[in-house]
Amino acid sequence: MARTSRLPLHIPTLALADTVPAWNRHQALFPPAEVSLQSYPRDSHSNVPPSLIPRLSPTPVLPYTPHHPLELLRTHIESHLSPAGIEPVLPPSPVVTTKLNFDDLGFPADHPGRAKSDTYYLNKETCLRTHTSAHEVATFASGKDKWLMTADVYRRDEIDASHYPVFHQMEGASVWSVDKGDAFAPGGEVEKECEAMERDLAQASIEIEDKVSLDEAGGWQPSHQGDPAKLRAAELSLRHLKGTLNGLALSLFGPRHAASSSTGSDEPLRVRWIPATFPFTSPSYEVEVWYRGAWLEILGCGVVMQRTLDGAGEAGKGKLGWAFGLGLERIAMVLYSIPDIRLFWSRDERFLRQFRVAEEGQVGKLRGDVKGSAGGLSKKREKLITFEPFSRYPPCYKDVSFWTTSSKTSWHENDLMELIREETSPSSVEATTASDGSLVESVSLIDSFVHPKTGRESRCYRLNYRSMERSLSNAEVNEVHERVVERMKRDLGIEVR
Question: The Aminoacyl-transfer RNA synthetases class-II family profile domain covers which part of the protein (predicted)?
Fold first, then answer.
């Protein structure tokens, strides 16, 4: 299918307003959006739907809402890394230029992440950030060498229990000067921290599988290979990265693994490094943990591309180091056994009260260790939070079967997902009290074929209507579903079978 969207999505005008940081807005659980889209002229790339606008905020909300599961996870990670001097920083507005989001990070012009089917565009030159890496260059340019940023990011995607157009990423980085000081010298700061982390990990209940060759991970960057000092710095940076993230994985999953292990704490947590490819790091890796009988990818990482640091101007000149990025919802859903990503937006007290912990020691409620990546690991253990479902309301399935207008459709499947979200949002379904305003839990393609004579394609999608907080009547779902089908006929040009 082509990646060109035909959906006539309209962006209302909003006024720009400066707001206090999200963590000072305790009175309203989820404050209204105050991000202006009025100054961005629309063009053929514009595809931000009205239903997404209430989620926009100058600073991320959920990870700074007290006692929210994402706030607990953010606080845990920040506290774990703070002894290494890694400082939390706030992101700017989620509205960024495509230069920041793609060009400065080395995304090729034909990278699928640039497609309108994947990214929300205000216009051809401006989009909603798709990753926290969009702010790497600017953060380094501000003089920050060791930082941790939590931000809301936006991507057009499928509809199911683990995907939502707004989610949250955390990005961390540490760089040191190669030319000034002795950070990378034998016995210097970086090497000492590596040795300390490795000693701690050697005594911890963790089994690390790291058999990836440098070639598999993308190899050393040419500018590092040709300079002995930079090559040593890159080697030490990678060693430091692995020590830091192995410690973080143990901090996050170790206590729960020990608690659920059939053999008790004697069975080590298994961590695996696998090769990856990212435009903004080389060598590049993904880190997985063996958890509940399966390998779970938890983050991506690598040695920062030199062009990123060079792009930061004087502040990045002569520096080298590492960066990583992870998805908060992905980890929180596993750690807390949260079954549906829509619950993170819930205002239901039956959900929220399960994550209320005492202010003092609240981080300990989540984790089993309390020291940072450069220090020892404590054996402190406290109660671990696990979400207990308060109800499971029945689903209501509705199918829609149709012919596309030609053998080659002019719309992407994510266009259909966006349309369904739009038609089941609060503005379209006034009666809904669902957690995220959407009555649709999942959408799946259950059948497709191409007619042998006409070449026309037929598809059948199944929509699972289910509220997180109340039972839906069949009549109510029928009314919503009819609107969805009419919108599909009008905007996608389909012929219902």
Answer: 93-354
Sheet holding 166-177, edge to edge: 87-89, 146-154, 166-177, 319-327, 294-304, 281-291, 269-275, 206-209
DSSP designation for 427? T
Q: What is the pLDDT of residues 420-429, one digit of tens each?
A: 988 887 554 4
Give which of 31, 106, 53 is closest to 426, Cα–Cα.
53
Token couple for 145: 């060498």
- Are the beta carbons of 217 and 285 closer than 8 angstroms? yes
Fold (CATH) for 396-496: Alpha-Beta Plaits (3.30.70)
Q: What is the pLDDT of residues 392-418, one digit of tens each?
A: 788 999 999 999 876 455 788 999 999
- As a whole number, mean pLDDT of residues 235-255 equals 97
Dist CA 305 CA 278 (whole Å):
10
Q: Facing residues of 321 across strands?
A: 175
CATH 3.30.70.380 in the chain, residue ranges: 396-496
Q: What is the assigned CATH class of domain 60-90+140-366?
A: alpha beta
What gap in Å lies between CA 52 and CA 10, rounded to an integer? 11
How deeply is 332 buried, as exposed, middle or buried, from its count of CB atoms within 10 A (0-12, 13-18, 19+)? buried
